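Deliverable D4.2, example record:
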Amino acid sequence: MLHNDPRQRTTAEKALCSPFFSIPFAPHIEDLGLLPTPVLRLINVIDDSHLHNEVEYEDVVEDMREECQKYGEVVSLLIPKENPGKGQVFVEYANAADSKAAQRMLTGRTFDGKFVVATFYPLSAYKRGYLYQTVQ
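Output generated by the structure prediction step:
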């Protein structure tokens, strides 16, 4: 029950002892993709022709870095040439706020005639090199 008077409110320590908080909770990986994280995954951006030509690949990496830096400091940028993650763009920002700004601005834009889809990606998975493949 909510109380306007702070003296009637329960303490945080007492509230945390509630049985509600004793239920183990582990979010599903798909749910984590919705929470803002420092890592942004761009899908539907690059096709195979850009991945197999080294000059085109470097141009795309440079273009993506240049565009993504408009929204904050880019710590790292990865475009895998092979599965898992082939053709997706993973951008690690210095913080989740920059990633969120980039996600808002990049989603729905077009790159090389394709609509960009930007989703958040778990930082721990990215750091460990776990790049999930999208189902086509």
